[in-house]
Amino acid sequence: MAESTAQQVMDIRAGLSYALGAAEQAVAAAREAHAAAVTRRERVMAAANARRTKVAETLDGRIREIDDRHRRDLAAFAEAAASAADRAAPGAAGDPWDDWQPTPLDKAAELRVGRLLLPHPEPVPALVPLLDHGHVVVRGERRIGDEVVAGLLLRALGTAAPGALTITGYDPEHLGGGLARFATLAPAGVLTFVGPGGLGALLNDLVDQVRRINETVLAGEYTSLRELALATHRRPEPWRVAVLLGAGELSRPEQTQLQRLLRTGAAAGVHLIIQGMPVQAGPGIEFITATEGDRARISSAGALPVRLDGGPPQAVVAAACRRIAEAVAAGPAPVALDSLLPQQLWKESSATGLTAPLGDSPLGVPVTVTLSDYPPHALIAGPSGTGKTNLIYAWMGALAARYSPAELAFYLLDFKEGVSFARFAPGRRDPSWLPHVRLVGVNVNTDREFGLALLRFLGEELRRRADAAKRYEVTNLAELRAEDPAGSWPRIVAVVDEFQVLLAGRDAVATEAVDLLEDLARRGRSQGIHLILASQDVSGIEALWGRPALVAQFSLRIALPRARRILAETNTAAESLPRYHAVVNADSGALEANRIVRVPAAGDRERWNALQHRLWRMRPDSQGPPRLFDGDARPRLADSPDFRRLAPAEGQAPVVLLGETIDVAARSARTVLRRAPGRNLAVLGTRTEEACAVLATAARSLAAQFPPDGAAFSLLCLDQDARPAAEALRDELPDSPRMFFAADADWLLEDAANEAGATWPSDRPHFILIYAADALPGGKAAADQLRTILRQGPERRIHVLGWWRGAGLLRDALGGPSPRTDAIGAWVALDVHGSELTPYYPGATAPVWYPRPWRALHFDRSVHRGAEVIIPYGQ
Ligand SMILES: Nc1ncnc2c1ncn2[C@@H]1O[C@H](COP(=O)(O)OP(=O)(O)OP(=O)(O)O)[C@@H](O)[C@H]1O
């Protein structure tokens, strides 16, 4: 038992030991597992932490990136918006008030009212479109709204040319007080106020304006004034801005008209700025909510907050308004000459007439003027400085651009002192000329003969055309051109500025001029010869009044401001014309035929030259420069066509040229020294320079007709003052002619007298030039010898070209108080009065002549009926 118990105890112990061992093992394993689990958990935790940090970092980076991009985008957007705004609102449209002044722009701009509040430092202006776009409605606080309206108005005024924008103010509550700061504009007509009851009438008037502009200005050709201005560079109508400041309830008709204007006004330049009136949103209407601080809004910027600018300072408004009012009072800015030019040059035919615009009507429509069978001729009048010359330039430019030189020829004469037509002829600085111009006469104030010469020339042309018409059995130019298409039949336009000078006085020149004018005016119409007579002086027009038949032909009348007596007696339209405007009347001045035209500036040399150069470059090769007659210039013998034609010719009587005749063709006055009694020449007067010039011309022209030794020249100089000229002539003549002075005068005279009385035939002509023949020394013997030479010489080809310093002194030389004068067949008188010339003139009359510088009277008894005025050739 004991053993078994012990066994049992041992077994139990063994069992317990085993169980303990197993339990310990289990505990160790459990501990291990626990430790592994703890490690794993720690690893997982660390990994989880690391991931979280990474995610957070990535997120931060991303957010930073987005922020940066956002900032960059915003900056770019703000910069772009700011620079777009600068472009959309340049100068006066957007400048800040402290640096603001009017800067008229070429086209309508948007107007700044404040700035957009963007989360970016770049300031972006808040702009609203008005002119050429739509209307502005201001809501919110009245006080702030007033400043907005004032700012808008000033900016709009400052971007338009003075007078190109007018304002009408309707302010029933404050009776115009809201616009009081613009009051300086009122006297100039730029601002008008409408009384409290006047809204209906104002809206009606604006609607009428819109209708009129649509019908007559846009006329179906353009959809808006903006489009018209873009296409034509003209803005014939002002922008009309109506400011309506509070009205309470509008009547039904007022509502209707307001809606019409909101819909259709902008295209016709009628714009509304409305404050304190209910207006529905609609296209082209900008709403401004005027509030303090950052809560203002403009509808085109959506929900973006806007800070409005303060109103313009009073000093800025006052200065700008004064400037604009002054400019408007001074008259509208000139229209450009280009507005008169056609799309294509030289495309018109003048067969039935000449039609060209002269400028724009007040409605902006071109006013055209026609010269044709009716009206055939024009009278232009305007006191000095009113733009008469400018109008002639503009008209000529418009015509010259439409008609080629084959269709139109100009003859221009200016009796004024001045050179207003000289620009059409080649000058020293500018070699171009207007290709249509065939003749330019300037500084002709004392040479009325030149006016006469032009009329004579036109009279000749009239005859030529009438003869051709008869040949072709037609009655007018259009028919003649149809029958003779190869002929050259341009319409001729002769312009005579200050024409009254030509008609002044009761002398032969005036009489002949009036007769010629009458004939040209009557018959020129059907032959395409048109006269334009201009005068600044009432007396000019009055010079014609005595000739009703003549005046009646000038049915086209053009009156510049304050021109009198040019239109019909009761037609006073010219008295109230603004500057640079004219009344054009194609019905002899009848009131109902008035058309007002605003004439472009054509006087500006640069603009004119641009046109002239274009036309000049297009001229046909055959079109030479015009003949320029300049009363102040001395013609040169070398330029004389007659002189250039002279050449040695066998068996022909020599021709003496004396000076330039006053005529269209620049002919030289001439006398033929035939072998016949009396073929001598006397130059009479005391003016040494001119006398020497005439003798030099005579000798040089003679020399040109002989081979070097074909003729003999002798010079006898008895006046010290003439000696340099005489010697210069001698040096120029061929074969070194002999020169005699007082001391050896007897040699020459004795020989020549012997030669004159001889019986043997002379082998060559001998021309004796005597300077101051009245100072002949040698008493009676020498005088007798000279008389013998004068009487008998020409038969033997000895001709005297002598200068006597007075008509009486020549008479003495010829033999006393009433000698025979037939030894002097031709003479040139300088400062000698007409009455002194009676003995050398046919009949008992004296030629009409009053001496003037560098002019002479020439008479050749063998060919002339009357004497002719000539201009000595100078060096
Ligand atoms: N339509 C116009 N637009 C702008 N300037 C003009 C216009 N017409 C005339 N002028 C300017 O006015 C001035 C006088 O013009 P213009 O010489 O044509 O006058 P006028 O009547 O011919 O004077 P006068 O007879 O004394 O020469 C010139 O300086 C000219 O440039």
From TrEMBL:
The keyword RNA-binding does not apply. Pfam families: FtsK_SpoIIIE (PF01580). This is FtsK/SpoIIIE domain-containing protein. The keyword Chaperone does not apply. Keywords: ATP-binding, Nucleotide-binding. It comes from the Bacteria. Residues 364-569 form the FtsK domain. The lineage of its organism: Bacteria, Bacillati, Actinomycetota, Actinomycetes, Micromonosporales. InterPro entries: FtsK/SpoIIIE/SftA (IPR050206), FtsK_dom (IPR002543), P-loop_NTPase (IPR027417). SUPFAM superfamilies: P-loop containing nucleoside triphosphate hydrolases. ATP binds at G382, P383, S384, G385, T386, G387, K388, T389.
